[in-house]
């Protein structure tokens, strides 16, 4: 080798070596080459299912062996006109019969845009469509009476109901002189029709408590949770927002909007004082951040880490991405999984994604439009049944490559668990896998495969999966 060529080779080698920590190169290599065919025990606990607490307001709610399923009961810009509460009420019985155990409703109180608002610009937390303010009596979704009727109906069907709580910011106040800014600000909420939780510039940043908190949103007045007056009215008083929603309106839990905007101690204090199920919208794919927030807030959190990994896996031909870290793997009892919501809907291969979250740990969420309009409801109902009845115990990943993913739920309390096989390729696939069952007949509970194989004495068995689909195997009993 000529010296010049040798030096160039060393230079090239050095450049390649210096780039080995580059995520793009690592990810590209894993996408092309990586195959996992050794069992990886992902979670380590006693096997119990996700719990949403002690039950609904009437104490009737009981989840199945695999835990519960949550329905997001709205989407962005649902029809206005005040009919949405009744629309959802009309679906509650069918949802309950399908095995859905809880409904997450949009922000229920009167907001700045009155009958046209989706509720994320709250004005009066105690106006549920029963006061004439902001241009209407009813909210976009209906009247207080209709909301109460919906909640009562859900409880009669043994379902929980979660309120979307927007406490980072307010909107719809009147203009007032603000000595902290030297300008006029829209922070005068002294005239809210309910007469409850009146507020002014002292209750918003910047003020005597500081210039800002963790985050502001969209230029709206940023509520100051450090102010004792705000704390009293949000969660301390007997008629605080939280206690009123729980004890008077009969909500069973909370979805906290935009929790990046304030410290996790806020949700922790709410939960300590009010109780009920709790999940935070921390829009961040970093699992360390999600886990940090969930622990400090004493709350569940939406698993955005899993959401983005599912997009990479199912839409980009890299099922190896499902080996990566996610909140449900860190702490399955604080992870709420989802495939789409009212804010983000990027996963195209949704049925495979639903097959993933409804067979794995965490608390799976169904998006209203996926269930009612866009996907095959019969297939979703089958997955919900599988989740509630078969998706038990800890999780072990058995095999992954670019196109195939096989995982095992290890069973709990006498329930045998399952093996899920996801195939993102264009042809039927077969694979030998190790189950927890010795010399027993199994079947595919999706009905996709007609096989009824018997596991060997060493618990190994061959299973199959249709192209661009999934199969779910458990004991034929």
TrEMBL record:
Residues 68-387 form the Glycosyl hydrolase family 13 catalytic domain. It comes from the Bacteria. InterPro entries: A-amylase_thermo (IPR013776), Alpha-amylase_C_pro (IPR015237), Alpha_amylase (IPR006046), GH (IPR017853), GH13_cat_dom (IPR006047), Glyco_hydro_b (IPR013780). Its cofactor is Ca(2+). Ca(2+) 3 binds at residue 403. Keywords: Calcium, Carbohydrate metabolism, Glycosidase, Hydrolase, Metal-binding, Signal. It comes from Chryseobacterium soldanellicola. Belongs to the glycosyl hydrolase 13 family. This is Alpha-amylase. Ca(2+) 1 binds at residues 168, 232, 238.
